Amino acid sequence: VGVKPGEVDAALRVFCGIIDKRRRSDGAVEEDGAMALRPFTPFLTSMLDHLHHMTTSQVRRLFLLLFAVGRGNDGDEGGNAVGGTTGSMGGAVTDIVIRKHLALAPFAKKRIGIIGTVAYAVSRSSLLQEQQETIDEENDMAETEATCLAGSAAIASSPIIKEIRDMIDSAYSHCKPAGDSSGSNNISSVGSAFSDGSAMAFMLDELCHAVKGGRLAGPLREWL
């Protein structure tokens, strides 16, 4: 990006702080941080041109910022259905960047697509978790086992879960070592890929990082 890594880290931390919902001392939400950050979207998008200069954590934070800022533009905030979906991964530009890097052979390039894919899964999981909290609040008022089960089933069957799984599957197919034409995601193929290619190893590491941090929706953790 043309500056010291520490300066980039500091800038991204500031942006992440803005994304967090601002709260008054009494705990009430004062302003949506994503809305406040939207004027900086062109600047954040321009940083996609410098991904190859960034560290893994910096790339991860940038993608998460772009997905968070783009969420409202995709209509997620306006819909109340669990099955609300987006047409692209946080915007056409971000979508193209991720898919382009996944298709590139050099690991240094492919890692960017992998980070973006997992960041997409984390961002969409955050939306599901917010919807789950809303359902839980409604269920607490109803206080019936049937409504609790219905809410969990609605999250598990959400089209958002399918979106995330499809993206992870797509990234996996781009990370398989050369000569592996298997279409199945079985344990033996994953194990051989882990020892044969750094891309697959890196993808598994990113997924583990997301799971360990509790940032993936329950149905996704079970699937993985």
Explain what this protein looks like in three dimensions:
The protein is an all-alpha fold and 224 residues long. It is built from 11 helices and 2 strands. A two-stranded antiparallel sheet has the order 1-2. A hairpin with a 5-residue loop joins strand 1 and strand 2. Helix 6 runs antiparallel to helix 8. The two termini are 35 Å apart. Mean pLDDT is 75; it is low at 74-88 and 186-196.
Outline of this structure?
This protein has helices at residues 5-19, 33-37, 41-46, 56-71, 92-103, 107-142, 145-156, 159-175, 187-196, 198-212, 218-223, and strands at residues 22-23, 29-31. It has 224 residues and is mainly alpha-helical.
Keywords:
224 residues; mainly alpha; two-stranded antiparallel sheet; 11 helices; globular
| Amount of beta strand | under 5%
Number of strands: 2
What are the segments in which pLDDT stays under 50 over at least 5 consecutive residues?
Answer: 74-88, 186-196
Q: From N to C, what is the helix and strand string?
A: HEEHHHHHHHHHH
Mean pLDDT: 75
Spatial gap, N to C terminus: 35 Å
Fraction of helical residues: 55-70%
Give the strand order of the largest sheet, numbering strands 1, 2, ... along the chain: 1-2
Nearest-angstrom radius of gyration?
19 Å
Overall spatial form: globular
Structural class of the helix and strand makeup? mainly alpha
Number of helices: 11
Largest beta-sheet characterization? 2 strands, antiparallel
Q: How is the topology of this model organized?
A:
Elements: H1 5-19, E1 22-23, E2 29-31, H2 33-37, H3 41-46, H4 56-71, H5 92-103, H6 107-142, H7 145-156, H8 159-175, H9 187-196, H10 198-212, H11 218-223
Antiparallel strand pairs: 1-2
